[in-house]
C-alpha cells in the first residue's frame, strides 16, 4: 500500500511526467526483426499490433524492452512464443466508487492491474498501428476485437481519460465482443484488470481495409501468467478452446481526439489517477478516447 500511495502522489504532482508521456510518442523503425523463441515479458513496454510478415497480415507483440540494452533494438515477437507475466506487484484494490461497479468485486478486493500509466515494476501492455508498412497500406485504421477469454477469473480492459472522467470500458470477458476502432499511427495504453491469479488466454482479432480495397484479418491468442506464483511454462503450453462469442448487436468503437495534427491518427497520452475512500487505485494516463457507434 505504501508503494501505491507514493506512486499516486508522484503522478498527481507530475501530470505530464516523461514516463507517462514520452513513451507514447514513439516511432517504430522500418524492418525491425521478428524474433522467435519463448520469451517471458514481466516488465517494460510492450504493445500488440499488426505487421506484414512475408506479405501476410499478422498480429504480433512489439517488445520495446530490448532497447534497455546498450546496443538493443525493439523487436516483434509471435504471440504463441510470448508470455506476458503480471507479477504480484500489480495487485491493487477495487475502489469504493459506483463508477467501478463493472469490476464486479467488492470494494477493497485485490485485483491484478496492468495500468494505463507505466509502472516500472509491472509489464506495460498497449497496442499500436505504427509499423511503417502498415501505415502506408491500411485505409484509416484497424478494428480490434477481444473474441474470447479463458482463465480462472474475469478480464476487463478500460480507458480512463483526464479530469477524473468516468472509465470507458472497451472489453469485458463476461460480455459480448466489442469491436474497438484504432486509427492509423496510434499508440495507446489501457487498464487491464484481472480478477484472479492464473493463466489467461485472450483471443484478439485485428482486421483492416487496405488502400487497394482488400480486407485483411488475423486472430491470435495473447498469453498472460497472472500472479508471481503462476507458471509461465503452463501459460506457454495452454491451448485456447473457447468457442468465439457472438458479436455485439450494436458494436462500438474507441476513437481518439485529434492532438497536434498527427497524420491520420492520434496518440492517447493524457490520463487520470483516482483515489477511492480508504483505497489507492492507480489508474493510467492516456490521451482521451471516446466510444462511437460504427456505421
List the helices and strands and how they pair.
Layout (H helix, E strand, L loop, with lengths): L1 H12 L4 H4 L17 E3 L3 E9 L2 E8 L11 E3 L4 E5 L4 E3 L16 E5 L9 E5 L3 H6 E13 L4 E5 L8 E5 L7 E4 L3 E3 L1 E4 L3 E13 L4 E12 L5 H6 L14 E5 L17 E3 L2 E3 L7 E5 L2
Parallel strand pairs: 1-5, 2-8, 5-16
Antiparallel strand pairs: 2-3, 3-4, 6-7, 7-14, 8-13, 9-12, 9-15, 10-11, 10-14, 15-16, 17-20, 18-19
Textual characterization of the structure:
- This is Choice-of-anchor M domain-containing protein.
- Residues 1-20 form the signal peptide.
- The chain crosses the membrane at residues 265-284.
- It comes from Solirubrobacter deserti.
- Keywords: Membrane, Signal, Transmembrane, Transmembrane helix.
- The chain is mainly beta and 295 residues long.
- The protein has one domain.
- Helix content is 9%, strand content 39%.
- The protein has four helices and 20 strands.
- It has helices spanning 2-13, 18-21, 132-137, 232-237; strands at 39-41, 45-53, 56-63, 75-77, 82-86, 91-93, 110-114, 124-128, 138-150, 155-159, 168-172, 180-183, 187-189, 191-194, 198-210, 215-226, 252-256, 274-276, 279-281, 289-293.
- The protein has a six-stranded mixed beta sheet with strand order 1-5-16-15-9-12. It has a five-stranded mixed beta sheet with strand order 4-3-2-8-13, with no helix packed on it.
- Strand 10 (155-159) and strand 11 form a beta hairpin.
- The longest helix is centred in the N-terminal third of the chain and has 12 residues, at 2-13.
Amino acid at each position: 500500500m505504501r508503494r501505491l500511495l507514493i506512486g499516486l502522489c508522484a503522478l498527481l504532482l507530475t501530470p505530464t511526467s516523461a514516463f507517462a508521456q514520452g513513451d507514447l510518442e514513439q516511432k517504430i523503425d522500418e524492418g525491425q526483426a521478428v524474433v522467435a523463441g519463448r520469451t517471458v515479458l514481466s516488465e517494460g513496454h510492450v504493445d500488440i499490433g499488426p505487421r506484414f510478415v512475408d506479405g501476410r497480415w499478422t498480429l504480433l507483440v512489439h517488445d520495446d524492452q530490448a532497447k534497455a540494452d546498450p546496443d538493443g533494438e525493439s523487436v516483434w515477437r509471435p504471440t504463441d512464443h510470448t508470455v506476458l507475466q503480471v507479477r504480484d506487484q500489480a495487485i491493487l484494490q477495487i475502489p469504493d466508487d459506483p463508477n467501478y461497479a463493472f469490476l464486479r468485486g467488492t470494494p477493497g478486493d485485490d485485483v491484478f492491474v496492468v495500468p494505463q500509466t507505466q509502472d516500472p515494476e509491472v509489464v506495460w501492455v498497449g497496442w499500436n498501428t505504427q509499423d511503417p508498412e502498415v501505415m502506408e497500406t491500411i485505409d484509416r485504421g484497424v478494428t480490434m476485437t477481444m473474441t474470447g477469454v479463458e482463465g480462472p477469473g474475469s478480464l476487463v480492459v478500460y480507458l480512463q481519460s483526464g479530469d477524473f472522467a468516468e472509465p470507458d470500458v472497451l472489453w469485458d470477458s463476461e460480455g459480448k465482443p466489442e469491436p474497438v476502432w484504432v486509427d492509423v499511427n496510434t499508440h495507446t495504453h489501457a487498464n487491464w484488470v484481472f480478477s484472479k491469479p492464473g493463466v489467461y488466454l485472450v483471443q484478439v482479432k485485428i482486421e483492416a481495409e487496405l488502400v487497394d480495397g482488400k480486407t485483411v484479418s488475423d486472430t491470435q491468442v495473447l498469453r498472460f501468467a497472472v500472479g508471481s506464483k503462476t507458471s509461465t511454462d503452463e501459460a506457454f503450453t495452454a491451448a485456447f478452446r473457447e468457442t468465439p462469442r457472438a458479436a455485439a448487436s450494436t458494436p462500438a468503437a474507441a476513437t481518439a481526439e485529434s492532438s497536434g495534427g498527427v497524420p491520420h491518427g492520434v496518440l492517447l497520452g493524457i490520463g487520470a489517477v483516482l483515489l477511492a475512500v480508504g483505497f489507492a487505485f492507480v489508474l493510467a494516463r492516456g490521451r482521451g478516447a471516446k466510444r462511437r457507434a460504427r456505421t
